[in-house]
Amino acid sequence: NAGVTQTPKFQVLKTGQSMTLQCAQDMNHEYMSWYRQDPGMGLRLIHYSVGAGITDQGEVPNGYNVSRSTTEDFPLRLLSAAPSQTSVYFCASKQGQGYTFGSGTRLTVV
Amino acid sequence: KQEVTQIPAALSVPEGENLVLNCSFTDSAIYNLQWFRQDPGKGLTSLLLIQSSQREQTSGRLNASLDKSSGRSTLYIAASQPGDSATYLCAGRRGGGADGLTFGKGTHLIIQP
Questions:
Q1: Residue B92 near residue B35, CB atoms below 8 Å
Q2: Which of these, B96, B70, B78, B86, lies nearest to B5 by C-alpha position?
C-alpha cells in the first residue's frame, strides 16, 4: 500500500539504550519529517529533510539524530534514550502542500 | 514564533448536530493552514488545506475557513455522525522555508449516537 510506513509500532527501552525508528515512503516525496506527540501538547517537529543528503533541525532536535541516504527512508536515531523521550513519534512526507503521516511509533523509556 | 490554540479541548454532542471547532494562531504570516483528523492509536489524516490566499475550503460535510487578519480558522462539521468522533488538529505553516507545521493541541470530539 502506498504511504508512509513506520516500524516498530511499539518499543520499550531502558534508559541509556540506543535505537532507530524506521520510516519509509513509496511516494517519491522529497520532503520527510519527524514529529513527537506528547499528552497535552501539540505535535512538535524534531528533524526534517528536503531531499536525500539534506537534513535540518526542527523545534526539539536534542537527543535525536537523522540521516537521509535515499529518498525513501528517513530513520530517526536515539543515541542514549532518556525517560523524557517517552512519546509517540510520527513520520510524515510531503509533496506540494499535502502531508502524509505514518501511523506512529509508541516509545516508552524506563 | 507561531502558536496555535484550539478551543474547545473537548466536545460532546448528539448525532445530527452541526458544530464548529475553533483554531487561532498568533503569526498572521501564515502560508497555509491544515485541519487533520486523528483516530486513537492511528496517524493523522489530512482533511482540508487552506492557502493563505483562500478564505475557505469544503469537502463533503466539512467546511474550513481562514481569516488571517484575525488569526482564526474554523472547521464546520454538518450533520455530525458517530463516525466523526476523533481528535481534530489544526496546524499552520509559515512560508519561505522548509520548516514544518505548528500544531494545536487538538479538540477531542465525541458524537453521541
A1: no
A2: B70
Q: List A residues 46-85 in contact with B (Cβ-Cβ < 8 A).
A: 48, 50, 56, 58
CB-nearest to B100 from A41, A48, A97 is: A48
Which has the minimum average pLDDT: A28-42, A81-95, B61-75, B90-104? B90-104
The β-bridge relationship of strands A54-57 and A31-37 is: unpaired
B100 three-class SS: coil
Judged by a CB distance cut-off of 8 A, whether residue A97 touches chain B is: yes
Q: What is the pLDDT of residue B2?
A: 81
Q: Which three cell numbers stand for residue B66?
A: 481562514
DSSP states along B2-37:
--EEEE-SEEEEETT--EEEEEEES-S-EEEEEEEE
For residue A78, the cross-strand partners are A19, A64
Mean pLDDT of chain A: 94
